[in-house]
Amino acid sequence: MSASNPQTAAPGAPAEARPSNFIRDIILDDLKTNKHAGRVQTRFPPEPNGYLHIGHAKAICLDFGLADEFGGHTNLRFDDTNPSKEETEYVDSIMEDVKWLGFHWDGLFYASDYFEQLYEWAVQLIKAGKAYVCDLSADEIREYRGTLTKPGKDSPYRNRAVEENLGLFERMKAGEFPDGSRTLRAKIDMASPNLNMRDPVMYRILHASHHRTGDKWCIYPMYDYAHGQSDSIERVTHSMCTLEFEDHRPLYNWFIQQLGIFPSQQIEFDRLNLTHTLLSKRKLLQLVQEGHVSGWDDPRMPTLCGIRRRGYTPEAIRNFCGAIGVSKTNGSIELAMLEHFVREDLNKRAPRAMAVLRPLKVVIDNYPEGQVEELEAVNNPEDPAAGMRKVPFSRVLYIEQDDFREDPPKQYHRLSPGREVRLRAGYFITCTGVVKDERTGEVVEVRCTYDPATRSGNAPDGRKVKATIHWVSAAHAVDAEVGIYDNLFTKEDPSQTDEGKDFTSNLNPNSLEVLSHCKLEPSLASAAVGGRYQFERLGYFCVDLDSVPGKLVFNRTVALKDTWAKIEKGQRGKG
RNA sequence: UGGGCCGUCGACUAAUGGUAGGUCAAGUGCCUUUGGAGCACUUUGUCUAGGUUCGAAUCCUAGCGGCCCAGCCA
Question: CA–C1' span, A328 to B52, in Å?
Answer without folding.
Answer: 28
